Amino acid sequence: MQVLERSIELFFLILEKTNVDVRTVSLTVCLFVFICASIGFFIGGPSENTLDQSPDIENRMICIRSQRPLQRLMASSHDSGNDDAKRTKVGTTEEKDVKYDEPPKCSNVINGYIPISETIPRSGAFGLIRKIYRMHDNPDVVFALKTPKDDHPETLDNFDAEINAYAELKDHANIVKFIYGVSDGPLQYPFIVLEWMEYSLRDYIATCGGVIPNPREMFVQVASGLDHMHTHHLMHRDLKTANVLVDSTGTRAKISDFGSTRKYSKERNNTVEGVCTIWYRAPEISLRDVRYTLAVDIWSLGCIHYELYHGSPPFRSQLAEDYDQLIHIFKTIGTPPHLAFPTGAFPPWPKLLSWKPCPMLSFDPSLRPSTPLECIL
Prior knowledge:
Blueprint: H1 2-17, H2 22-44, H3 48-53, H4 57-60, H5 70-78, E1 113-115, E2 127-134, E3 142-148, H6 153-168, E4 178-182, E5 191-195, E6 199-200, H7 201-207, H8 215-231, E7 234-235, E8 244-246, E9 253-255, E10 262-263, H9 283-286, H10 295-310, H11 322-333
Antiparallel strand pairs: 1-2, 2-3, 3-5, 4-5, 6-8, 7-10, 8-9
Helix pairs in contact: 8-10
């Protein structure tokens, strides 16, 4: 500051020695400084402090801007082929040293919605759930806010797929109602606003001590929602009781969580490692069949049917590995001849006599019901 003052004094001293009109020069200098400051403001924009102090900034911003990591930008520029081929596997050797950004903290008011709680227990592998209500509305009328769990490319790809699925499956009684959503972009972080459902079907079964009063009614609703998906050629690929939500009365069930959902096509390979929670995973996925069909959801539906009547899924691997899960399946339904010793990899277990045949849980996908509505027993 002292250097600036000395410079100004020297400037005016030179003007006096050269007999130049000081007032004219002063006005010219002031005008020049004002013009430069104005240009700098409009080009650079207001400072972050100015934005933070704006009274309505929270209403205009959907979510705080996120700086994408370089890996995210590079992955996006090289994506090609089908949806599964461009998904990055989490935890691979190539990815283990890469650090991705944590999702940004959302503002107190998100597009007119106010969060009530922190994340709830049924937040999934890729998304976090919070209870919210709409501004200037009854606080008792609540909604669910879903945001990505992290900034990993696979997480954001799944989140975009979920938004697209909700938009296509809207207005069905057994699909969670989609209120509003924003896809991933350079200036906003993605989020979804959904209707609020009190329980997951898994929690509802546990609350009832493993025996719910209306298993058939619940199953019919889940089958109806899945049939709506298959009518739109969409495979859920992670159907389980944790992804079926139940209202506070325990009478309405709706399918949710479409992060693994993809369009079904006979012309392309549909497989990807790790799709579908292992207790509900069809054997053809565990056996790496690259041409699996909509029948993988029918298998999951059969597991849900069993769980509704018995309180737990029929096949429960403790190791969370495909081979161990297949052993649990074959010990119950019997080992298929072509997979049994000596040519196959599994012992020739016979079917358990206590196991009642269920078409939904047929090892051969072609023997399962062709549509979910045919599964209603």
